[in-house]
Structures are given as structure tokens and as C-alpha cells.
Amino acid sequence: MINRRQFLKGASLGLGASALAGYPHLAAATAAAEQGPNLDGILGSPHVPAKAKRVIYLFQSGGPSQLETFDYKPMLDKRHGQELPAEVRGEQVLTGMSAQQTSLPLARSVFDFKQHGESGAWVSELLPHTAKIVDDLCIVKSMHTDAINHDPAITFLQTGFPIAGRPSMGAWLSYGLGTDNPNLPPFIVMVSSNAGGQPLYSRLWGNGFLPSIHQGVQFRGGQDPVLYLNNPPGLSTGDRRSMMDKFRKLQDLQYQKWKDEEIKSRIAQYDMAERMQKSVPDATDFSDEPDWVFDMYGPDSRIPGTYAANCLLARRLAERNVKFTQLYHQGWDQHDNLPGGIKANCEKTDQASAALVTDLKQRGLLDDTLVVWGGEFGRTNYSQGKLTETGYGRDHHPGCFTMWMAGGGVKPGVYGETDEFGYNIVKDPVHVHDFQATLMHLMGVDHEKLTFKYQGRRFRLTDVHGKIVKAILA
User: Taking a C-beta distance cutoff of 8 angstroms, is the pair 219, 225 a contact?
Assistant: First the structure.
């Protein structure tokens, strides 16, 4: 005998199972969820043939000025000090920092530009090392975003949504594709120790609502790159192993009682940490690197935690098949004294960024490693604050900015174009969601199909937007 409630419950489950059988990808996702975190990736195999096996994302936090780096505008030389034409500004919103200015004077760059390589791409004198590898770069001058302030803009670029809480790009790729090296996390993050500026938060490399095993693991400079990885004083490896065995049994009991999938993620993280006790010291030990490598990346590469050292470590992680490595370098937010500030930034980053591309190329890794360089938005063509012949600042500008990519299935060259004032896009716009969709495609993932059901709806990195920029695919 069964009562009415039992009958309805059993019938609904039966109908649900029958319906699910008609949608194999949903059935697979449901089965995978019941088994806990899948370190091999929820997809099993890529949606499309992958051009890249891994990503190294050199994120320049603060918004580098495209007008001092890659987007050369002679018109600003001619009209230096004149008012930004109303028809050029249009209806674009200004930040609260310059909206109260009585004048918006156009500001030329004080740095010289020259054309380089077979592509003839314009590159600033601030980037002499990048200029040498320009024929390996796909320079996208027509990026644009929805957010005008730092935190929502960075969050939007990293997670596809300007409000915190969504999974980051690296977490999505870890969830979808898993790991190619079970002894290292598939998603590793480094923040330069020799920089400061707009604050960064760990949620930028967080897992959001995905299982926590997919969150980025931060590596730091110094003797202990990963916090709490080493055994505490007085605790041997055998003692730690015995403790972990007991811990696993307790966690299994908890899972049997509560069926909380996060318990399985926690166990998987502890198992990964144990393997990392051997793999991390090997990856972070630069003693086997010859002097010519340090010379290529620059003197800072010998100092753990610097941008240059992190670039070198990123190459070592690529050799070990880490899926997604992200470097954050702060300090690009120049509202005043832009010439001095951006020059210092470029001195810290230019040589190492170029060296990373060169190093990957000569080791045969660039073809299947996608390197990305760029910030969260661009800068205005007018001066924020007082304009002088040698001094000026630039405010936030989401309307256009420049990023570059190299390797990993992208076509070298210059893509997109801004107007002669460097304020609006006039050719081939690339939205942040388009960039995300293209990055996922290069990794073999259909951005519309990699989803996760949370709070009753299916989410994806690109929300309900994004198109692949096919013109930049090799």
C-alpha cells in the first residue's frame, strides 16, 4: 500500500527520468552532478576542435591608455588643447570624476609612435620589446565594454557580469574541460608584488556557483607560494597521510547523511593539495633556468612575485599543461600624471610580456597556448584635470580600448578601428562577451552550450550574448 504523496513523488520521478532520456547532454550533466566534481571536465571532450590547449592571461588592472600604447592618433597632435567636439562625445556618459569639469581639452600623447613589423602596426616608444614581436600579435583596437568604473568593469571582463557572484573564465574552463595535469590546479592566479593600485578581490578568480574545486589557486612570491600547503612543524608526511585518511572517512559519512556535493569538492581539494606538495616546489624552483632566460625576461625575473618572475613562472606552468594561468598587474589607473605613471608601468611589464611570447614560441608552445594582454577599459582622449605640455591625466573610457592576443589559433595583425579622435569605434567592434565567446571557442568550447543550472535557470559565461570573432581566427 502506498499513500497519495508517495505515488505522486514516484510518478514525477519516473516522468522526469523519461523526459531526461530525450536530452543526452542534460542527462550526462545530471549524472555528473550526482557523482560530484569532475576533474576531467563536465564535457568529456571539446564541442569543437580546440586551437589552444591553455590560456595565459596578462591582465593589466586599472585600464591602460590605448592612446599611449597602440592606438596612434595624429589628430590629437593637431588639436591638442582644443575642446572635445560635442558630436564626437555624443551621448556617452562621463564618470563623476570629470563630469564636473568645465572643459574637456583634447590631450595628445607625449610619446612617439612608429610602425613595426610586416603588419606595419603602430606601437608606442614605451613598448620597445613588444614592438619586436608585433608580427606575432593580434592587436584588437575595437574592444568595448558596458561598465565605466573599475570594480564592475573588471568583474564583467572576468565573469561576464558586472555584479559579483558569477564564476570566472578560468573556473568555467576548469568545469568544462577539467585538467591536463592532475598534480597542479587547472586554474592558477598570480598578482604582482611590485605594483599597487585599484584593489583586487579573490572573487575575480572565484568559482561562483560552480563546485569550489574550480576556483583559481593563488600563487605568491617567496618560499611558500601556496598558503598552508606545507606540513606544519612536527607533522610528518606519514602523519599527514593518516590524518587525511581519517578526514576522508568523516567526510564520506557527512556526504551519506547530507548529500551535499560541496563535500566531495572539499575532499578533491585536499587530495589536490597533497599532490601539490611535490608539484608546486618543482614548478616554482627556477634553479634550472639558465642565465639567458633571466636576461630575456629582465632583471626582475630573479625576484619572486614580480611581474617578470610571474611571466617566467607562467611559461613553466604552460610546460606542465596548466589550463588557465592569469597574471594581474595593478597600477594602470592614471587620472593624473599619466606620462610618468604609464612609463613606469611599461618599464615593469613590456620586456617580460614580450619575452613570454618569444619563449613560448621558441619552445614550440605558442601554437597551442593563447596569450592575452589587456585591461578592463580604455582612457579618454581628453585630459582629466589640468592639461599642460608634459602633464595630463585620462579618465575611464569604456567606449573603446585595445587588447592583444598571440598564439593559440589567432591570426596576427590589427583588427578593428577607432575614429580619428580615438573616442568611438568605426570598424569591427568587439564586445567583452564577443571576446569571451572567442576565447572559449579557441579552447574548444561552445559558449552557448557550457551551462550550469543555478537557482532555477541555466547560466553561462556570456549570459545571453556574445558572438565569435571569426575574422581573427587563424
Answer: yes
